[in-house]
Amino acid sequence: MTLADRERPVPRGSKRRKRDPEGRMSLKDHLRELRRRLVISAAGILLGAVAGFFLYEWLVATLAAPVLDHGGDEDARLTSIAFNAVGQPLDLLIRLSLFVGLVISSPVWLYQIWAFIMPGLKKTEKRYAVAFIAASVPLFLGGIFMAYTLLPRAVEFFFSLNPEGTSNIIAPDVYFAFVLHLFIACGIAMVIPVILVGINMMGIVTGKQVLGAWRGVVMLIAVMSALAAPGGEAVTMFFIMIPLTLLFGVAIGLCLLNDKRRERREQALLRPGG
């Protein structure tokens, strides 16, 4: 290529752009990249929702079992889930299908989150981000499973607060909204430590800043655990609290290690001949 070729202006409308080897992008490029990642994530969720459509009957029966089986034959109180509007079955079908799509497509949208973050990382840090992507998917699914195991206990506790002689006739939009919020909250809570390490690798927060907030985070974990384990059952609460606290501790350790590695790299560059 001659000098004249290099200085020749790029035609208007050309898609060719100089790529920054360090992954830096302008604000416009960031917004374009974010839009692309959101579209891919939404497409993955919608494709997963197709599977949710076929799993609808099984999912309703599984999630409604703690209510319908409450008390057994010895409990004379009526417990049921009753539709009170013509369009509620369709609304429930859409909600549960999208929830299944969210779970099934979790590798897709979690990867898109990390793929959006990764251009801002150094090459040596990207291999660690790949490991965090692999960790986030089982953690999210593990949080969903944890919420599923806690659901019967939660229903049993809330029904135990009923005054004598009352029944539990629950609208499906109320009950399934409670169930889905519980599932998604537990799933996201398990992924937050991974995201915390990611924003540390981006340089947004330091390990010391994360460590300085440990009291508030542990208190928040305790509150979340108490809400997810109603009835004040200490054993159930600790079963939720311990893994979340350990994950937060691991995240702090990784953030501090990354800070030390970044500091050593910067000091090496400041040395003569670095």
Automatic annotation (TrEMBL):
Any single GO BP term: intracellular protein transmembrane transport
Main location per the UniProt record: membrane
InterPro entries, per the entry: TatC (IPR002033)
Keyword Protein transport in record: yes
Membrane topology: Multi-pass membrane protein
Residues that span the membrane, as ranges: 38-56, 92-117, 129-151, 174-199, 211-229, 235-257
GO MF terms, alphabetically ordered: proton motive force dependent protein transmembrane transporter activity
One Pfam entry name: TatC
Keywords on record: Cell membrane, Membrane, Protein transport, Translocation, Transmembrane, Transmembrane helix, Transport
Residue ranges, compositional bias (Basic and acidic residues): 1-10
Keyword Transport tagged: yes
UniProt region (Disordered), positions on chain: 1-23
Intracellular or extracellular location(s): Cell membrane; Membrane
GO cellular component, one term: TAT protein transport complex
Family matches, as NCBIfam families: tatC (TIGR00945)
Oligomeric and partner information: The Tat system comprises two distinct complexes: a TatABC complex, containing multiple copies of TatA, TatB and TatC subunits, and a separate TatA complex, containing only TatA subunits. Substrates initially bind to the TatABC complex, which probably triggers association of the separate TatA complex to form the active translocon.
Family: Belongs to the TatC family.
Function: Part of the twin-arginine translocation (Tat) system that transports large folded proteins containing a characteristic twin-arginine motif in their signal peptide across membranes. Together with TatB, TatC is part of a receptor directly interacting with Tat signal peptides.
Protein name: Sec-independent protein translocase protein TatC
Organism of origin: Nesterenkonia alkaliphila
Protein's gene: tatC
